[in-house]
Each structure stands twice: as C-alpha cells, then as structure tokens.
Amino acid sequence: MDISHWVFVVSVLLLFLASGSFSIDNFHQPFPIVEPDPGHTKLRLSREGLEAISRINTPIAAVAVIGPYRSGKSFLLNQLQSLSCYEGFGVGHMRDTKTKGIWVWGIPLELDIDGVRTSVFYLDTEGFESVGKSNVYDDRIFALATVMSSVLIYNLPETVREADISRLSFAVELAEEFYGRVKGQDVAFEPAKLLWLIQRDFLEGKTVKEMVDEALRHVPNTGGDKNIDQVNQIRDSLAVMGDNSTAFSLPQHLNLQPHLRRTKLCDLKDDDLDPMYVKKREQLKELVASIIRPKIVQGKSLNGKEFVSFLEKILEALNKGEIPSTGSLVEVFNKGIVERCLKLYNERMGKLRLPMPEQSLQDAHDRSQEEAMKAFDELHFGRRHAKTSFKQLDEDIKEVNKNIIMANEYHSARLCEALYTQCEDNMDQLQVLRLPSMAKFNAGFLQCNRSFEQECIGPSKANYEQRMVKMMGKSRSLFIKEYNQRLFNWLVTFSLIMVMVGRFIIKFILIEMAAWVLFIFLETYTRMFWSSESLYYNPVWHFIVSTWETIVYNPILDLDRWAIPIGCTVALWMLYWRCYGRRKHKSRWLLPMYNSHKSGSNRPRSD
User: Fold this and answer.
1) Helices 304-318 and 135-148: crossing angle, nearest 10°?
2) Contacts (Cβ under 8 Å, ≥6 apart) of 558
3) How far, in Å, are 58, 73, 254, 258 from residue 265 at the CA level?
4) How many CA atoms lie within 13 Å of 163's alpha carbon, on the beta-carbon side?
C-alpha cells in the first residue's frame, strides 16, 4: 500500500515537471507574455511568450501598440506584419476587450539596423478604459509597454483628448528619468520612441502634427485647477521630448460605410481597402522601420534571454507598490548597480592591511567611496529617483565602513596588547638580571619604547601609550630602587669569591689582597663613616658603579649573558693550569705567589 502510494506521488510530480517544461513546436502564432492576475489589478508572466522570445540570440527590438480598447490595435498590428486576422492577433467585435495583458507574435521580423541584424517583435496590449478593470491595471499595462518597447505606437481614434495626454504621465516621467542622461555617452536606459497614430475618416483640415502640437499647447489655468496644472506639466515635458516622438495619420480602411462593415474586416483583402489607407499603411511600416532601434540597456543591446530578464525586473518593479511608479522602477534597476558599486568598495577596502592609522583608514575610505560613487554615477538609472538608490549606496558604504573601523580597532588592540605584554615581560626579565646593570636596563627600556612606537598603530595606540608610560615608569622606579642594594650585595659576594680564588685556586696574593680591600671597604669602612644613602651619592661609589657598568655591559660584551660560559671556561683553564701547566712549562710568575724554597723545591707548603 505504501509503495503504490509513493509511485502515485512520483508519477504526479513527473507529470507536473513535464508540463512545466513544455516546448513550443509552432511559433507562427501569438503568445501571451504578460497576463492579468485573478483580481485584474497586477500582472504576471506567461512562460509561453517568454519562451518565444528567449530563443532569439540576435539583438531584440519591440514595437508595442497602446490605446483605448476597441480602437483597432490588433488589426493594425496584423496589417503591419501582413497577417490576416485568422493567423495573426485576434480581432474582436464585441464590447469587451479581446486582448488580455500583453501578447507577442511568435516569429519576429528580421531587419538590418545600422548593419546589425535585429529581431523585431510586435506586441499587442490590452486596451484601457474597458469594463471591469481598475485604472491602476491600465497604468501597469501602459508603463510596461513603455519600458519594454523600442517604438511605442499610441493608437488614437479621430483626435487627441486631454485624457490621452494624461495617460502619458508615466512615459514622460520615464523619459525624464532615463533618456539622454549624458550626451555623448551610452544612456543607462533608453525608453521607447513615441509615435502618435491618429486614425480618422477624413484627412482634410489640420495635419496630424498640427493636431498633436495643438493638443500639447499650454492651457491657461486662471482658476488654479490642480488637474490642469498636472496636464500642463505633461504637455511641457512632451514638447521638450519632441526629438523623441513623431506623429502619423492613418485613414480609415474601408471604401464605403466603414461602421457597417467593420465586422467583416478579417475577410477583406487589400483590394477591398481604401487605396489611400494601403498607401499610408506602407508608409507607416517604413516609418516604424526607420525609427526602430535595438533595445539598449546600459549601452548594451539585449538578446532574447537578456530581454526576458529585463522584462522580469520591470514587472517586479511595477507590481511592487499599489500604484506603479518610476521610482519603484528606478529602484529595482539600480539594485544590481548598487550591489556592484558596493562590491567595488569592498574590494578596495579589502586590500588594506589592518591595523592602520585612523587617518590613513579614513583617506582609504574616502578614495574607495569616491570611486564607488563615481561608478554609480556612470552606471545608474534615473535622475531624480536615483537619489534613493544613491542614499542606499551611501548607507551601505557607511555600514561596511563602520564594520571596517571596528575591525581596525580590534586588530589594533590585539597588536598593541601583544607589544605591551612583550615589553612588560622584557621589563620583568630586566628586573631579575644576574648581574644588575643600569646600562642594560636603559637599553632594553629604549628598545621597548622604540618597537612599541613603530609597530603599535591604529586607534588603540593612544590608550596603550598611556599604559606603557605607567608600566615603564613603574619598572624603572623599581629597578633603580633595588639597583644600588643589589649591586652592593653582589660586590660584597664578588669580593669574598675573589679572596677564595686568589688564596686557594690561583694562589695570587695581589688578587687576594685587592679582594680583601674591597670587602673591608664595603663592609667596614662604609658602615663606620657613611650611611647607605650617603654611600650611593659618594664619588667613590659612582666610580665603582661606572667601572662595573663598563665591565658588565658594553657594545662588545654582555657579561650578564656570557657570565656563566666565561666563568666555566676560566675555571677549566685554571684547573688545567694547576694540574698540568705549571709542571709542563716550569713558568715563573712575575708577581709574588704563595711559594717557599726553605725545605727544597718540592717541599709542601705549611701554613
């Protein structure tokens, strides 16, 4: 029972995966690329249309037709592609709109544009102002078509209304944000060229250009109506965008009684259409072919897969808020650029060797931040709304810099702590020298200070400098305090040792006498005539100390380090001399020795 259950589950999963990875065999048909969600407020992608686009490896351009519902957009697209209604985009005759979302014709038109083979797709969009839809949904369709197309045909019947101008607010804002950001350089993102297409029964009277110019003329607003001000702003912007837009008129397509025979459009041939219409239609094809350019994003044309990725970003931005805005679009497109610039900043700062002085770290931060901001300025999308992404990048850099400052403090504290501990250990070792030497202590003291000053860097240096001053001062005071007493005791011990050496080992009477003199001076004379404090300030003591320091520690010899090896060597030499040297060489001392010749040369000494 369990095995059959799992077999069923696996079978369902395989069928599901197989259905999700379908392959289209016939592309000679329209496919949806964007569909409305169940609530008909937001958009979602359709994989059929995306597969038709993503298979293209050449640069892609898109021609989108927008306008009110039931205005002949689908029929116009079929005419531009020389397709009949039965094989091209569906043409409806009912009151409700035929096209839902945005559809694409599966086989692109191949054109040679500026020497580059380009695949041109035609997009049919859902008409706005239809029944059962929200204005927000229309805005999303309009915005998506504006962003993804290279040529945007604004299909209007008869004339240009104020409501038609209002709908261009997003296109205007988009153009202001993206188009022509820096002259002479690759634009970050180039919106579609706007083509006003007016379809009317009679071509007499005003030309379409005159009609559009008149519609875009500033309207007086003596009453201070906000709506009129908003439309006037759009009019002003569209007038400035004149080099990015054009106008074209197209007569109605039937010879007689067009309102009666529109239901039979799909059955008509070119011979049944108005010759003027056929002529203007061919001129429209040539016009579209002349102004269309491959879709450019950051100076790079997009192939099929890149175009699909571009479309996904657009849809993510337009579905982000309750109302589609250029700001959300700019933010989504700048997200990757912000990450790239932040990565650049991280790479530059990552090359630093921490710890380092605070000012050097600040200088490196300023240089890296300037380089990252410069890269963002060259790559970013948008003008006004790019400030949000700019602030985001600045905040991200500050956060990274904050972490780097903390890391610098940590590494600085570790380094200075290690140097401080090393100096403290060295001072402790100098406190317990076998042979006390002020010169050696001062040399170690200066070496510690010098190594700490050179190697301890970063923000923790000031704090550890104060600790070093206290520790070194305390060590110096303690050494000086014990130095004289240790030296005095060592000299007393040394004098007794030399008495023993001069009397019993080498039997040199002058060494014994000198040792006795030193011992008596230290233990008798000083105690009878000087106090311990006055002794340390006496010139005789200073002479003894100077002589001691010269012997114990000098550039040639560090007696504290070599005392034991030297002592052992001397002891061995004296032992050798006493046992073998004197009998072998029969040498005579120039100075008096403990020796008597009264009872013969070999008579032992008697004390």
Assistant:
1) 150
2) 440
3) 34, 13, 9, 10
4) 9
Residue range 173-192, pLDDT digits in tens: 766 666 544 333 444 567 67
Q: Average pLDDT of the chain?
A: 76
Burial zone of 90 (CB within 10 Å; 0-12 exposed, 13-18 middle, 19+ buried) = middle
CB 380 within 8 A of CB 334: yes
pLDDT score of 329 more than 80 = no
Report for 165-169, 215-219, 445-449: range of highest mean pLDDT: 445-449
In the structure encoding, which two tokens stand for residue 149, read together? 């197309």
CA angle at residue 99 from 95 to 102, to 5 degrees? 150
For 473, the token pair is 């001062």
Outline where 351-460 has alpha helix (H): 358-379, 386-431, 438-455
Least Cα distance to 332 among 378, 290, 385 occurs for: 385
Rounded distance between C-alpha atoms, residue 258 and residue 261, angstroms: 5
Residue 502 half-sphere exposure toward CB, CA atoms < 13 A: 18
Kindly state the tokens that stand for 566. Answer: 């030297």
What are the percentages of helix, strand and coil residues in the chain, rounded to 5?
A: 60, 10, 30
- Closest C-alpha among 284, 120, 104, 288 to residue 198: 284
Helix, strand, or coil (residue 95): coil
In this predicted model, what pLDDT tens digit does every residue of 446-503 receive, in sequence order? 888 889 888 999 999 989 989 988 988 888 888 877 777 777 787 788 788 888 877 7
In whole angstroms, give the CA distance from residue 136 to residue 128. Answer: 10
What per-residue confidence (pLDDT) applies to 324? 62
For residues 264-300, one letter each, b for 16 or more C-beta atoms within 10 angstroms of the residue's C-beta and e for the rest, the string is: ebeeeeeeebbeebeebbeebeebbbebbbbbbbeee
| Alpha carbon separation from 457 to 348, 414, 452, 471, 533 (Å, rounded) | 21, 11, 9, 19, 43
Q: Are residues 44 and 37 in contact, defined by beta-carbon separation less than 8 angstroms?
A: yes
Query: Of the segments 241-245, 454-458, 572-576, which one has the largest average pLDDT value?
Result: 454-458
The three state secondary structure string of 35-64 is EECCCCCCEEECHHHHHHHHCCCCCEEEEE
546 or 198, higher pLDDT: 198
